[in-house]
Structures are given as C-alpha cells and as structure tokens.
Amino acid sequence: MIIGGGIAGLRAALTASQFVDVTVLTKGKIGETATEKAQGGIAAAIDQIRDSTEYHFEDTIEAGAGLCDERAVRVLVEEGVDRVRELIEMGAQFDRAETEAGGGFALALEGAHKQRRILHAGDSTGLEIEKTLAGKVMAERKVKIFQQTVSLDFIINNGRAAGVTALDLKTNIVKTFLSDAVILATGGVCQVYLYTTNPLFATGDGVAMAYRAGCEVTDMEFVQFHPTSLVHSKEFGDIIALPQFLISEAVRGEGGQLFNHKGERFVPELAPRDVVSRAIFEEMRKSGSDHVFLDLSHIGGELVMNRFPVIYKTCLERGLDITRDKIPVAPAAHYFMGGIKTDTNAKTNIPGILAAGECASTGVHGANRLASNSLLEGLVFGHRAALSAKSEALNPKHETSPKSLNLKPKLKPAEIQRYKLIIKTAMWNGTGIVRSKESLTAAQHKLEMMEKDLNFEPNSAEEIELKNMLLVAKLITRAALDRTESRGAHYRTDYPRLDDLNWKRHLVYKVSR
C-alpha cells in the first residue's frame, strides 16, 4: 500500500506493481500534488563530460551544512542518473539545447550547484514528470487507486504495521485497508506556515501518522524557506490563505538579479537558499517593506518568455510584465528537510512502515537541501522503498472494510480556519526564517494552548488536517528550541554560530508510550 500520489508514490507504485498487488491512497485526485507545482527541474549528473556524480555529491554535502548522510547522498547521485534516464525512456520531455551536436539536454544552473545539471521542461518540470509517471501507472493498469481518501492512522499488530484506517471523502465512511507493507509518500508540511509555496494539502499528514504509530522523526527543525515567492498586489485581495506563487530559482540561474529598495544588489543570487532568504529578510526588516525586487529585464524578452512561460503568464495576469518590470518577491516556507527517519532502503523503526520523498528524512539533504534534489530524491527512494516493501509483503492483503460511523464534525469551518491561522501565524513569527528562544517559546505556548482546545478525536478531513498540522508544528518548534546553534536553514539570533563540537548530530524524537 502506498499513501500519496506524487513523484515518490508513483515511482514506488510502478516498481512495486511489477511483483505484487499495489493499492494507492491519495488525499486528492491523482496529479494534485506538490510534484506538479515544481518549476525549476531535477538535478542529475547526466553530462558525463563536464559533470560527474562526484561533483554532484560534493555540492549536496556542502549545501547540507555538515548533517548529510554520505551513504544516502551516494545513493541519490549515483542511482539518480539511472532513474532520470528511465523517466526519459518513459517519455518525459525535457528541454533540449538545439545548438549542441546531437540535440543534448539544455541543462540549467541553480543555487550552490557548481555545474549545469538541472533538467527542465520549461518551468513546468514537475508537471511533466507527474504526467509521465501517472500516465505509465494508468497505462499498465496494475495499480488500484483510491482517490479522495484521507489516511487516518496505522493499524499496528504485534509491533508491526498491518494497514491503515482512512476516510473516504466521497461517502464520509471510514474504511480499513489491510496490507503487510505501507509506503508513506505524503509530501511536505509547510502549510503550517503563514506564507508558503506548498499546496493546501501539504499539512504533514504522513509525518503525524508515523509519529503517532511510534516511528522516529528527525531533523524537524530544518525547514527551507525559498527566497523568491511572488508578493501579491493588494488589488488582488488578501491571499494569505492561498499558496504563494513560486518564482523558480532557475530564474536566478539564468541571470535574474536581486535588488533592494535603494536599487542595490545585496547578496550573491546563487548562494544557498538559507543565505539568500536571510539576506532578503534583513533587507525587508531594514526597509520596512514586505518585499525586495527580482529583475530579469536585462536577460532578453524572448528568452524569458520561452524559458519561463508559466511564470511570465502568471505575473502578467497580476499586472507584471517580467520582461520589463521588476518582480516583488519575498521568502516563503518551501521544503521540509526533516521527517520520518529512514535508512537508505526507506525503512523506519516500525516493521512494515516505509517512507519516501519529502515526508521522509533519509539524510540526503542535511540541514539545507540543494536546489532540484527534491524531485530526484522522490524518484530514487520511491523506487528503493518499493524494493524494500517486496520483502515485507509476503502475503499481501488489500481488503477494505467500510465502517459507517455517522461522523459529525465538532468544529465549524470558520473555527477550523481560525485555528489554522493561529498555527500558521505562530509558526511564521516564532519558528520562521530567524528564530530565538523568546520567539520559539512564544510559539510553543500558543500551540500548547490550542492543544487543550483540540483534545478530541477528529471527525472530518478538515479536523484531521488541523490535528496533524498542530502535531507537526509542535515537533518543529520543539526541535528548533532544542538545537542551540545556527546551521543551514535553522538560524537563531541568540545562538548565531555553527557549533560542530556539540551539535554536529541529528535530533530524533519518538512518541512516549
């Protein structure tokens, strides 16, 4: 059984379906995932003349600020080349460089990469990959898919997973799904923040489920804030509740420049994301503004429109012609380096529970993910999770046992939105780009007060999400308080230095029984 229909879940489904029956549960519809929103591209050292897996390894390790698992990174960069080539064989259409002999791939450069190794499909790379994998799954007809099904909790028998309970959103009936192996591929958690590029359903469900079941979670303090999300004009209304539109790092890779309100460039545009995000945050603080500017006007209009058609069209709809106008941008919560602790085979500490993609913490990202390694991680470890599940699934069962519970939500929609806003505001202000004991303690206090209000079993999809968001927010804040140093995406003003002597290690948490 696979929970999640993004790149990790679909790659796992394709691999597992070659040797066992597979069931996929998705909270939305197939294709409604963070994968389809990914703009920039997928990193892989397929250019063996100017690049190598060793160079990719070195860049990943350096970006991770001392906390990458070298074994996992080796797996990522070496197996990643084969996984990407398989995608191409399935029909994924990445941009080609017409000027190169033989029409090689047009490889892009992004922050903290020393070589051009980013394959892309315009600025819709994730959508191209999602379509390719989903198309292959559908064409093979080997996978049973339950859409609009929200997973609730694991069924644990004799210390191992035996399946999950899930709420069918179409019928409002809770069902039991039995399986000897469950792969969590539920994506990220960044909807716990007020400003985020993540889709609305990135509420940390898989991490919360796994933690409640007894799985270890790790690196929870490391949340990556993307430096450049579009700051919406007031004329388009209050869009706080909606995901921020991402202005891909590939824009800076093609020469986009950042300016403050004085017209000054203030940071190397292709520095690691944590460096650029904090620099923008500081410029905003000094100017009292909610944005800085990203300028592409010197690049050339035709190149901009051809390379970034979605960004160009979206900005134009908001009154900005990015071939001439500066783009108002600000950081937003974007990616979660932490999550469910796994080994390089996607296994957790609970037999029968595996995890892959953004919900998992394999150690490949360390304290700060290298740009465009996320899609690659989903491909590589989704495949590996399926191979690991093969040994677990000795007697696969995919029975569903409906239980009509006549669920009646305890909270009204307006109350749920109010509680979500409290979580998101507390996390943005207290556990955001820049943190301190004071801000973290204030966030922790707000979350604990809310927990008292929400001490009940959830009876709707919205209540489930709310409870999951609260649990994940508490874990992130706790870890950020515990780590008394600054490293990668975790920056504390009261402990601004890197402290390898005491903190070159991972924080691991597990529910108390």
Supply the key terms.
513 residues; 5-stranded parallel β-sheet; Methane Monooxygenase Hydroxylase, Chain G, domain 1; Flavocytochrome C3, Chain A, domain 1; alpha/beta; 19 strands; FAD/NAD(P)-binding domain
> In the residues, how many domains can be counted?
3
Biggest sheet strand order reads: 5-2-1-9-16
Uncertain spans: 235-240
CATH classification, class level of the largest domain: Alpha Beta
Helix count equals 14
What is the terminal-to-terminal distance?
26 Å
Give the name of the CATH architecture of the largest domain: 3-Layer(bba) Sandwich
| Multimerization state | single chain
Largest sheet: 5 strands, parallel
Name the CATH superfamily assignment of the largest domain.
FAD/NAD(P)-binding domain
Strand content bin: 15-25%
The third-level CATH topology of the largest domain is: FAD/NAD(P)-binding domain
Inertia-based shape = globular
Content-based structural category: alpha/beta
Helix content: 25-40%
Mean pLDDT: 91
From the alpha-carbon coordinates, what is the Rg to the nearest angstrom? Answer: 22 Å
Q: What is the number of beta strands? A: 19
